[in-house]
Amino acid sequence: MRSERELARRPLPLLWVLLLLLSVPVAVSGQAAELRFPGDGWERFVNVQEAGFDPVRLEAARTTWESMPSSAFMVIADGAVVAAWGDVGRRFMCHSVRKSFLSALYGIYWDRGDIDLNMTLENLGIDDWPDPLLESERQARILDLLKARSGVFHPAAYAGRTDSRPRGSEGPGRYFAYNNWDFNTSATILMQLTGADVFEAYDEHFAGPLQMEDWRVSDGYYHYELDKSRYPAYPFRLSARDAARFGLLFARHGTWDDERVLSEHWVNRSSALYSIDNDVFGYGFYWWILLQSPFRDHGMYSAQGVGNQMIAVLPKSDMVIVNRANTYEGEGTPMPALLDLIAEVLAARTGTPTENPALTPLEVMPDPLITSAPHGELAEFAGEWPYPPAPLGEEAETTIRVSLGDGHLVVHDPFQGTFKLYLQSDGTLHMEDAMETFVPVRNDDGSVAGLVEASFVRGGGG
Question: pLDDT tens, 86-100?
Answer without folding.
Answer: 999 999 999 999 999
